[in-house]
Fold each of these.
Amino acid sequence: MAARNLEEVLKEVRRIQIVAKKQVNDLLAGEYLSAFQGRGMEFNTVREYVPGDEIRSIDWNVTARTGSPYVKTFCEEREMTVLLVVDVSASGAFGSQRLSKMETAVEVAAVLMFTALKNNDKVGLLFFADDVIKYIPPRKGRANVLRLIRELLATEPVKAATDITKALEFLGRVQRRKCVLFLMSDFLGPDCSRALAIANQRHDCVAVSLADPRETTLPDVGFLTLRDAETDELLELDTRHPRVRALFAKAADDRERKLTGWLRRANVDRLTIQTDQPYAQSLQRFFRARERQR
């Protein structure tokens, strides 16, 4: 994305706010909460023991003070903590559609943020490339969500490799409380399955993979010069040859198989977002599939 001044950023924030809130109201109001139920239990109160209560639930401190047995009661946590972990490496700036991968990621992140806001959840943001660039701890409220969207819009793609492992290791140090973690990336980097598996043991991780159709198929348009956005390496291709197009498609298939294997080993759910398809429907299908699993 090109550099923007403050006025442009604020104008885009207003546009995204309108788009995101419409998606939440039209499509996602109930699915989000159902998809992430059962996130844990929190202490509610104590009451007197009655025959049949689980002995392990006895609160021995209260029992000792009162001289009568009391038990702890629990209820499902009423709110969640949601963290958006967004890859801002330069490969995200690629786009053959109306929106680039990064621009699509911003809109999807905004929809998730406003959905969390509707449920009164805390929302935080971490963006990274080859290292963590910025971390904003989770907070509640509309002002917080708008600030996070502004931060994303004002962030320029970074010419550096993608290192998801570093981002997740950092998160493991700063986010101790269980959260729902949306990892948004094109996953064009080294194997991160071990870091994903560790993160998924503590948090509820969702891999949001962003892809553009031109990354999987080449058109027959003659000579093309391709540039790696992160290394500036140039590659010239003659797309008239079926063999060249087939090799390009095979490389894309190989990347897809690797990513599928990483997520399977880590036991992490995947939400696929294609820049040429409506992302709201993809979100809705994902939430409904999660609800059926539960």
Note: The chain has nine helices and ten strands.
Amino acid sequence: MVPAMFAPFEFAAHEMLLGPGRALYWPAERALLVADLHLEKASWFAQRGSMLPPYDSRDTLERLADAVRETGARRVITLGDNFHDDAGALRLDAHCTGMLEALTRALEWVWITGNHDEELPKGFGGTIVPELELGGVILRHEARAGETAPELSGHYHPKLRVNVRNRHIARPCAVMGRSESGAERMILPAFGSLTGGLDAAHPEILGALQPARAIEALMPAKGRIARFPLWQTA
């Protein structure tokens, strides 16, 4: 059964489900994939004089726990930049630490490292790896330009900017490229609460998914996937 608000689509010959909360669920693997949690981003800015509401980690972890419950996931795989910096785990408050410890105990948890957290702390549960291959799909933090195998990644925080009734709206989205051979690669939206975003059609994102014959943005909408063409070969 498809969880409420998650929309099914096919990626690399696998059924996937994309949720409005920016998580990807892989039913055959019972795996929930999330990118760019950036836990403790607000406290990192606070140390530098920019005071942001200090609730980003709690909100991110609560939404992650909700997504686990909604999907029935037994495995969580994070796609890098899990903490905003290498010392982020030391700044977690007791509540967030307890939440994270409970999640990593209850689930098969894989931390993929990113450019913000190359030295993840080993105090929490789970396995720490630079990348992983699952079901013939490479899971890594940053899309590797020139990759010809199916790939899921994060890093770029893609957002789709559209004009609706004369209002400019930006929403997190996934971006998928398809090569001439049919191989598919996807960049997931950032899951963290204070992550911002890069325009889905930005040259850095389009370049990261080359070689491709077409690139499109994907967003869940009322139980289906809405697709927005971004680029294609002439």
Note: The CA atoms of residues 90 and 116 lie 15 Å apart.
